[in-house]
Amino acid sequence: MSTQKYPSFADYQSALQHPEMAFSSNFLKLGSVESDLWGFPRVRSGGFALTYKVDINEMTWAARCFHRGVRDRAIRYAQICQAIEKYQLPFFVPTRYIQHGITVHGKQFPISVLEWVEGESLESYIFHHLESQKDLITIGQKFRQVCRLMEEKELAHGDLSHRNILVKSDEIVLIDYDGMFVPALTGRKSSELGNTHFQHPERSNSFFNCRMDRFSSIVIYLAIMALASDPALWNRFQSGGEGLLFQKSDFLDPGKSRLLLALENNPGVSRYISQFRQICTSSIESVPSLEELIEGTSVKPVKISSLFDSRKKQKVEIPVIFAESLDEIYKKEGEIVTVVGRIIEIFHGHTINGEDHIFLNFGDWQEDCFTVVLWGSVLDDINRMDISVDSWIGRWVSINGLISVRKRRPQIQAEALTDITILPSQENANLLLNSYTNSKWSQIEKKKVEKESAEKGSNQVIQNHEAPKINLIDMFHYSEQKNVDSLLNQLYSSNRFNNINK
């Protein structure tokens, strides 16, 4: 891994308030970075990068700013970009890696640039089409075709998940290519392990080849087709995690998986479940392609001891944090986490520009407390579905998203309604908190929740009331940021990116 220290989330947020000074490309300097509810640069996060939407004239671009170092990233991206250009597969977006793309605090750092894809995540697409079996079957078949073409070209994404697959005009687009395998990278190790809720228990850095997407593609296909046959599975199993129906525990102990037990009677996928259990308990080397699974290829079993060792080493990458543990939340600024807690207050308001929003506060807003911000497309979904957000007061919830901090108030701005899960009870909250066993403070948080339960009663729900409407500036204030030094213009060339290179 690279020893270079990369800018923090706050560093990038400060720099990109002035794109004309931060970007090295004269073309990108002309851009306007999309703003969030507070007027700061709006950011989406991937595994290795913070992604910003940049509007330039009538074009929209994604600028991905890296916050984690990979020693041979430039070499990897050169080969990845060449492969994408060579094969011209419709589900890949032409990308350019820029070694000296942005300057932060006087130092230059790489970025990647690609055309912005205006679509919704696969998770969001499924949520919006749960009542249409035809739509889900169609998108499942299109995903199957994507996997077939990648197998033919000996390509692998490396982190296939419901967040890295977008649906645009009913067509699939893959994003985030940091961990991608192309034939020219044969012999190297993987730079990431992907979302563990989509990965085989034996997945490791040494398993870096064109077969590394096989397990995740099977998981995604089974989830889509199962939901097409039984949409009720969504409410039963899509709860408070980073998976698509499946969770890591389903792969570690498939014989006791409640989900797999339910899928045994699902007409859309029942014929695959026995073999999938074998796949989970077999070597990653023997995982069949999605096509082979559908065609009924068998899997050779391996010794349990070998798989047990790999299970012990597997780590959960998405931290799960109790909402009242503010010190731990502050440490995760700029990272994707799951926060679990009880909603204490709900405020409705609007910005100085008239943008409607809702705050879900997990404490007293006049003091420092964790907050979930609902606005934009999330609020549109809430209004379209006639959801009574005020009824959430007193409920236990989990929220997945990127942590940002405004005036010592940590928050997550929800990107999709599916990021929020209303948990049935405090017991479910405890289970979710305890799932993050890799944390030294998990037991402390458990005691906090248990203490709160003893004081308030585990079944107590705060009495609902008319949520007040306030102005955004009553809670948060804009702050002036220092300018960033001008940069040199050093960019790669490409026919499709001629304007960026000027």
From TrEMBL:
Main EC class the enzyme belongs to: transferase
Protein's UniProt name: non-specific serine/threonine protein kinase
Superkingdom as given in the UniProt entry: Bacteria
The species this protein was found in: Leptolinea tardivitalis
Pfam families hit by this protein: RIO1
SUPFAM superfamilies per UniProt: Protein kinase-like (PK-like)
Record's catalysed reaction(s): L-seryl-[protein] + ATP = O-phospho-L-seryl-[protein] + ADP + H(+); L-threonyl-[protein] + ATP = O-phospho-L-threonyl-[protein] + ADP + H(+)
Keyword Cell inner membrane annotated: no
Keyword annotations from UniProtKB, A to Z: ATP-binding, Kinase, Nucleotide-binding, Serine/threonine-protein kinase, Transferase
InterPro entries found in the cross-reference section: Kinase-like_dom_sf, RIO_dom
Residue ranges occupied by any RIO-type domain in the UniProt entry: 113-177
Protein's UniProt keywords contain Transport: no
EC number: 2.7.11.1
GO function term, MF aspect, one: ATP binding
Segments passing through the bilayer: none
